[in-house]
Model the fold of this input.
Amino acid sequence: TIVAVRSLIASGGERADLARSPFIDQPRTGRKEDWIRLYATGGALASEHYSIARGVLSRRLKEYYLQRAEAYVQMAERASRIESDRRREAGLAAILGHIYLQLRRVPEAARVFERSLHLRGEAGLGPASVAEAKADLGDAYGRLGRHREAERLLEEGVRDLERAKGAGFAARAKRKLAVYYLRRGSLRRYAKKWIEADAICHHCSIRDQLRGVSTIPRLSARFVAKMFGDPVRVDVVETESGYRYVNRDDRDDRDAPDD
Done:
């Protein structure tokens, strides 16, 4: 059966749905390690389909790729039925949570993000990994109106990611915190966090996450300039405790975290 499944992966392409293949539920022959590796490929396939879904404009196509991504997560979870691996399970829960957010199934997203955070703690993963899970869960709680928990988790996630110098993850978490502030009506804090996320991306040359002031939703460039000066002229200074944000025009320090 393992040869049959491998052949399906190699030849099926978009026509094949490995997660729903009849071969998947057949009695397993072969080495346990080979089955674990095979099932674990579902995680990579789920991540790829999720990325494709994020890039398409058609709602129908987006849902198609997201549903396939969800099915591949379910396939990957079969590896844990053979041998438990908290690290792998935490990663799959995070992928599934993001899939559910895109499908607007927010309560389900919150539940699997809770599981991801719990599993990372059980697995003894590092502060940056736990902080990323906190930011994900805080984002979901914010969408559900659980504001006190949401703000605490988002701020802790941003703070710990900055301390760990996880630049890309810190920038993403800051944008989540920024959008949370927008939902709460705090435009000043919203714009500040968005600008700081861009400053991290400039500082660390993370081109794919650069957004620019013109992309700050619901705020005009004139408003942002009035509040903060030219966002492009915000520099990042790395310290032992995280990042500091300094405007080159007026040298007005923006200490992070200020949360």
In short: The two ends are 54 Å apart (CA to CA).
